[in-house]
Amino acid sequence: MKVERREFVILSLTALAGWRAAGAQPKVPRIGFLWASSPEPAYLAAFRDGLRELGYVVGRNIMVEHRAAENAVHRLDALAAELVKQRVELIVTQGTPAARAGARATETIPIVVALGEPLGAGLVGSMNHPGGNVTGLTVLSTELSSKRLELLKEMNPKLVRVAVLFDPTAADPNGKPLAGPRSLESAARSLGLQMHALPVKSADDFAPAFSAASEARADAIVLNPSPVLSFHNKPLVELAAKYRLPAIYGNPEAVKIGGLMSYGPSYTALFRRAATYVEKVLKGAKPGDIPVEQPSKFEFAINVKTAKALGVSIPSSLLLRADDLIE
User: Fold this and answer.
1) pLDDT tens track for 230-246
2) Are 189 and 312 contained in the same domain?
3) 290 in helix, strand or coil?
4) Are residues 67 and 106 in the same domain?
5) For residues 274 and 48, what is the distance between their CA atoms, to the nearest angstrom?
6) 114: domain CATH number?
7) What is the dihedral of CA 153, 159, 160, 165, to 10 degrees?
8) CA–CA distance, 311 with 326 (Å, rounded to integer)
9) Does residue 148 share a domain with residue 135?
């Protein structure tokens, strides 16, 4: 009887020690990353660097589940649902469509918008007090489109006619385009420009739009950032070269493959900054209480080789201000 009791005590103490050991092990948080496009290596590296600076190492003390729509926006809802089923503690999204899909999939799991327009898309109540389960960083699409017009005019003071490509389906809850032609009308007038708005809903609309711009005798073209335009840099750059239209884009990736100019927020800086939002949420902060942040770093890129091919003379004032000159 004494032996049985002693064995019982030993077994109990062993079980208790095991339970305490297991309980002492910190839980490894698992977050989901929902990409509207394919993961851009530079942005993914920036996000991981941001996490590392805060003490999180992917694969060691934090896990990341990736889901990428590969530019097929219609897949986002299903991919967001997968992350919810995985019971991730937080979802990071790239692009406004991905953020919307995440918000449709869950009203309880925190969502951090690493790249998008959470306010314009109606995902947050205000910049300072988002409310709900969504917060993050905005890319200021509308405001920066006006700046792109100014850069084109500075490049060519004789500029008169400008074509603006925009996605009419990229709208806020009231149906107003997030970065459509209406947002540029006053800026165009102040610069003495005639603006030709050309809607594009898919890549099939690119060639007809450039043909229309050429027929309208456009002197240059602005490509307003949106999923359909941001995900198809290669064909857009090729069409700009074909029609010999100086073009300005919203992301430097287009310039790296032959686009003339780009101006926009530093996407690598935004992805690095998104890591701080992840940390705040994991430490217990509510997304609705974390203000949406505007970009603080912007990038201006010029492809000098493309300028020469188009016969465009870039003023020294622009060359000196460029963050990246591609020759």
Assistant:
1) 778 999 999 999 999 99
2) yes
3) coil
4) yes
5) 10
6) 3.40.50.2300
7) -70
8) 16
9) no
* Shared domain check, 93 and 212: no
Q: Which of 65, 136, 50 is nearest to 95 (CA)?
A: 136
Per the DSSP assignment, residues forming a β-bridge with 171 are 177
Element (H, E) at 22: helix 2-24
Does residue 178 belong to any structural domain of this protein?
yes
In angstroms, the CA 57 to CA 38 distance is 22
Instruction: Establish if 20 belongs to a structural domain.
Output: no
The pLDDT tens digits for 52-105 are: 999 999 999 999 999 999 888 899 999 999 999 999 999 999 988 899 999 999
Amino acid at 151: L
C-alpha angle 145-294-280 in degrees, rounded to nearest 5? 150
* Single-letter code of the amino acid located at 233: N
- Based on the structure, what is the number of domains in the chain? 2
End-to-end CA distance of the chain: 88
Tally of CB atoms within 10 A around 147: 16
3-state secondary structure 23-36: HHCCCCCEEEEEEC
Residue 196's identity, in one-letter code, is: H
Cβ 262 vs Cβ 236: under 8 Å = no
| C-alpha span between 277 and 176 (Å, rounded) | 29
Residues 233, 257: contact at Cβ < 8 Å? yes
pLDDT at 173 over 50: no
Asked whether the whole model's pTM tops 0.70, one would answer yes
Compute the distance between CA of residue 9 and CA of residue 181 in angstroms, rounded to an integer.
78
List pLDDT tens digits, range 122-140: 899 999 999 999 999 988 7
pLDDT at residue 130, rounded to an integer: 96
Distance of CA 275 to the CA centre of its chain: 14
